[in-house]
Amino acid sequence: MPTRHPLLENSEIDTHIEAYLKQVGEITYRFPEHDSKCQSLRVLVDNEHWFVKHGNTPQAITGLKQAVHFHAAVQHEALPRLHNAFATPDGFTLVYNWVDGEGLRPERELGPGEVHPRDRFCALPATEIIDALNVIYDVHILIEKRGFIAEDFYDGCIIYNFEKKQIHLFDFDCYHPGPFINDRGRLYGSTRFMAPEEFQKGAHIDERTNVFMLGRTAFVLLANNSDSRDNWKGNDALWHVAKKATNPDKRSRYQSVQAFVSAWHIAISEIG
Predict the structure, then answer these.
(1) Distance between CA 214 and CA 123 in Å, rounded?
(2) Which of these three, 76, 97, 118, is where a domain ends?
(3) End-of-domain residue from the set 97, 127, 157
(4) Could you tell me which residues are beta bridge partners of residue 204?
(5) pLDDT in tens, 202-216
(6) Cβ–Cβ < 8 Å for 144, 257
(7) CA distance 212 to 195
(8) What backbone phi and psi angles, to 5 degrees, belong to 163?
(9) Pairing mode, if any, of strands 180-181 and 176-177?
């Protein structure tokens, strides 16, 4: 009989996650602990690398189980595939395929003289940056169609393969069905990407909140986190689309991700 794959065919294990991974393969890299208190590992099993994410706090376990529902509903070539999820004695574990590339906000110390990956990315030609943004926007159109609202998306969720010019997005533990009411005050995320309503307890969080985040993503990547028109690498039409998307007044933004992306693509073709 074929041997069961130790990462892909379990629904539960009875040992601590690291002890188990050492039994079935080799841990080749430990990522620093996430704010969510999750533990992420690169694991080699039968000459193939996998990304394993484990949580053992109530918040982390809730997020990981939320990610299972998200990936069941949303599949896209730019998203690493979730292959399995299983329980451990003290928590919950996800197993993804490994994606080659560099995180734009790396979870490691940079070497002497090493340029930050986001700065390297922002130094690329505008056309290459826009191509990557288009993938991010394509993914979020699909997310909107599936009825999910983004939370905690930022440049740390982006992996870029500079050689292949290929982008992947990851870390969807905080994406959940929406719209919803902000019952916490400050939601999870990076201030650089967050809409005003994500700081306001009782505020309505909906597609227009996602529009703001995607507009801010354009400023972070096309202007290296600057709001100045002088640092913007796109044309004037794209600038105005991004500015409308990030209007503090939700009523003045595009009313859906689809509407924002449609305007974005029209603007790409205009002469700057």
Answers:
(1) 20
(2) 97
(3) 97
(4) 181
(5) 999 999 999 999 999
(6) yes
(7) 6
(8) -70, -45
(9) unpaired
